[in-house]
Amino acid sequence: MSAVVVAAVQMCSVDEVATNLDVAERLLHEAAERGATLAVLPENFALMGRRDTDKLAAAEGAGEGPIQQRLSSLAQRLRLWIIAGTIPMRIPGERRVAAASLVFDASGAQVARYDKMHLFDVDLPGKAESHRESTNIAPGAAPVLVDTPAGRIGLSVCYDMRFPELFRAMSAAGAEGFVIPSAFTVPTGRAHWEVLLRARAIENLAWVIAPGQTGTHPSGRKTYGDSLIVDHWGAVLARLPEGEGVVTATLGPDAQRKTREEFPALTHRRL
């Protein structure tokens, strides 16, 4: 595998799917123009509703619906691998939806799906801010890895980053990198965003692409932004602190492979 350019797309998504898809298309075009082979959209890129229940009405069935159709078409036209943050997906027999991260290859085919496993049911310490994702989202059941031109990628979403056992399991299954599309809160972002992302990279000698939501959304919710691409040694290769846009970086497998051979921490595990 040769070096590839990857992109993290940062958005301030609103409560209209069509508007968000237009913004995502423009930013994915920018990523392709900058030479990206693979681009990652943030969590909730297609909808940041005014109410938590809005995602129920916008949910799509497997392989159908305007969000999936648009992304498949874009991937094919741009010859771009797209990892689609999260999309609300219907689950047969379940009132709640899945927060599904879908992977489209450069032919437009959907080649992987990961449903967010860890749900953000939290009252923020010292803040009048409360979140109960599990009210309208059903948790996923298993890790997912996918082989891409950028290497073998472990899929995750936002709050997942606080559970290192998920990333260790994916690393043990051969992950060379992770994607962590997010819609991080501002207080937790200031305290933990960068340090957690770099920790997941360092402890697994794996790169991380972490695109985020940014700014104030129609519901009044504020998200942290600061989209990052981090290399396997924990160095920040690219970042976008705020505002919508795209950041890119080149990932080369040779340096990662050499580091893993010379610093074989992954082979020293005892548990």
Distance between the termini: 31 Å
Cα radius of gyration in angstroms: 17 Å
- The CATH homologous superfamily is called Carbon-nitrogen hydrolase
Total tally of structural domains:
1
Number of helices: 6
Specify the CATH class: Alpha Beta
CATH topology: Nitrilase/N-carbamoyl-D-aminoacid amidohydrolase
Helix/strand class: alpha/beta
Average residue-wise pLDDT: 96
Order of helical and strand elements? EHEHHEEEEEEEHEHEEEEEEH
Structure summary, number of beta strands: 16
Descriptive labels:
271 residues, alpha/beta, Nitrilase/N-carbamoyl-D-aminoacid amidohydrolase, 6-stranded mixed sheet, 6 helices
What does this structure look like?
The chain has six helices and 16 strands. It has 271 residues and is an alpha/beta fold. The chain has a single domain (4-268), classed as Carbon-nitrogen hydrolase (Nitrilase/N-carbamoyl-D-aminoacid amidohydrolase, 4-Layer Sandwich), CATH 3.60.110. The strands form four sheets. Strands 5-4-3-2-1-16 form a six-stranded mixed β-sheet. It has a six-stranded mixed β-sheet with strand order 8-9-10-11-14-15, covered by helices on one side. A two-stranded antiparallel ribbon has the order 6-7. α1 runs parallel beside α3 (66-78). The longest helix is centred in the last third of the chain and has 19 residues, at 186-204. The chain is globular. The two termini are 31 Å apart.
